[in-house]
Amino acid sequence: MPCLEKYVIVFFVMWCQAYTLDAQTGQSSPYNELPSPGSPVGHPAKDSAVIARPFFVRKIYISGNKRTKESIILRELPFRENEEYALQDLVARFEDARRQLMNTALFHDVIVALKRFDGYNVDITVEVKERWYLFPLPYFKPVDRNFNQWLIEQKGNLNRVDYGLKIIHNNTTGRNDKLNVWLVNGYTKRVSLSYDRLYIEKSMKWGMRTSLNLGSNREVNYATANNKQVFYKDENRFVRSFFNASAELTYRKAIKTRHRFGLGYSSEKVIDTIRKLNPSYLYNNNTRIRYPELYYIMNYFDVDFIPYPLKGYLAEVSVNKKGLNKSVNLWQTTVKVGGNWPIARKTWLGLRVAGNLKLPFKQPFYNQRLLGYSDFFMQGYEYYVLDGVAGGYLKTTVTKQLLGFNIKMPIKKSTIESIPFKVYVKAYSNMGYVYNPEPGNNNLNNKMLYSGGVGIDIVTFYDFVMRFEWSFNQLGQNGLYLHRKSYY
Question: What is the pTM for the complete model shown?
Fold first, then answer.
């Protein structure tokens, strides 16, 4: 090999490794001073035919995976052994690989870098630090839609709390599978089991998921008045019982998209008092319904960090059919799309759009829950619910990182050497609309709604995100709202 060619290759390999380590660990490198734009190395595509030659990936070395199977890690990598890549492309794929592996929620940290090279043959190393995977934890959770509703409107009533034991076993067999067991008492008597396995065959494209959920309540939300939930409670007996089971096949041909095809069965029963209070609670003035369910869900993630994305795109599309005859008849489709872009130093713009449609429009109260439930809500309207058959929202957020630091663990030789914390400040605005053909006295339906606010988000390990938000709405109301889980 000519000397000039050899030294140019050495320089670019060192730059490649330094760039990767900088991007993945934040550590500085002696090679992070790039050539000036006029230098031959700065424009290899124009001035160096040598660098245009692809590099051959000879071997991928994986370390740190005490439980996770190598095949699971290799499945997430955007490069393969015995394949060729241009140098700049390979550098970009290193960061993509780290992002994909971090988004599996299997690892605390991942480093992807060059291990060695021999001419145009390169070896790559993938170093991972695994998380803890088994969590037998006490369960304590208010049953209301959000923390503010429980603390303010329900005055922190402990009778409106579920408690018990949850066993979460992630990466159960080392194949990124998940086993969850929930034993819940208190407001809800419930037993839940679920098992999710991404891959069940050698090509690692097809997976499966099963779940079982049954329980009962002494209180039920049977209607909505003035966009507030109305409850009926009986201390001496259960007023609602439920059961649902599902099984699904999942398909993941590439890396960023997952398709889910599911079949389910559900049963819901309430006492006759609920039927008298709201004859439209279930179909046809009934106190019990049973129905099968078919559904399809597509998830797409191309973001830097799924629990708190700052760069990239994500989307979810679902189509659901409940019931096979007129006794239960619902077609439902939901679309969620999001995008995130850097707009200044440590500053990002985020957009979220979501919509929901239910057909036919004539549905019982049981199927009308829309805005304000689960993660489908508008900031500033946490105390309200909007039932309906069609609706959606648009959210815009500008986020800036304020702080980033690590707290070292006092325990030596711990799996976690330090706990990372990142603090962000943000400003946001929301707009939304929910259509209900029979709104009754719910005055927030069938009109445009607006809200906005500012907040502070804290992000730390194990995907924990805490949000402190001061929001205001068009009703002239404002206040501090707390959210623990991520929302779309």
Answer: 0.84
**Statement to judge: residues 22 and 108 lie in one domain:** yes
Query: Are the C-beta atoms of residues 84 and 56 closer than 8 Å to each other?
Result: yes
What are the tens digits of pLDDT across the range 49-76? 545 789 999 999 999 999 999 999 999 9
| Tokens 């780290």 found at | 98
Question: Using the 8-state DSSP alphabet, how is residue 54 labeled?
Answer: P
Domain presence at residue 179: no
- Rounded Cα gap, residues 240 and 378, in angstroms: 29
Q: b/e per residue, 450-465, with b = 16+ CB within 10 A?
A: ebbbebebebeeeeeb
Please count the structural domains in the chain. 2
To which residue do tokens 């189509």 refer? Answer: 319
Same domain? 419 vs 285: yes
Rounded to whole angstroms, what are the CA distances from 339 to 28, 212, 354, 486? Answer: 30, 34, 12, 15
Considering the domain architecture, whether residues 238 and 380 belong to the same structural domain is answered as yes
Question: What is the domain extent for residue 383?
Answer: 198-483
CATH number, position 16:
3.10.20.310
Taking each helix axis from N to C terminus, what angle separates 87-102 and 3-25, rounded to the nearest 10 degrees? 20
- Residue 480 tokens read as 């501090």
Assess if residue 190 is contained within a domain. no
Which of the residue ranges 35-44, 62-71, 133-142, 347-356 would you say has the lowest mean pLDDT?
35-44
Tokens of 462: 């194990």
Q: Convert the pLDDT of each residue in 403-413 to its tens digit.
A: 999 888 777 66
Give 412: exposed, middle or buried? Use CB within 10 Å, 0-12, 13-18, 19+: exposed
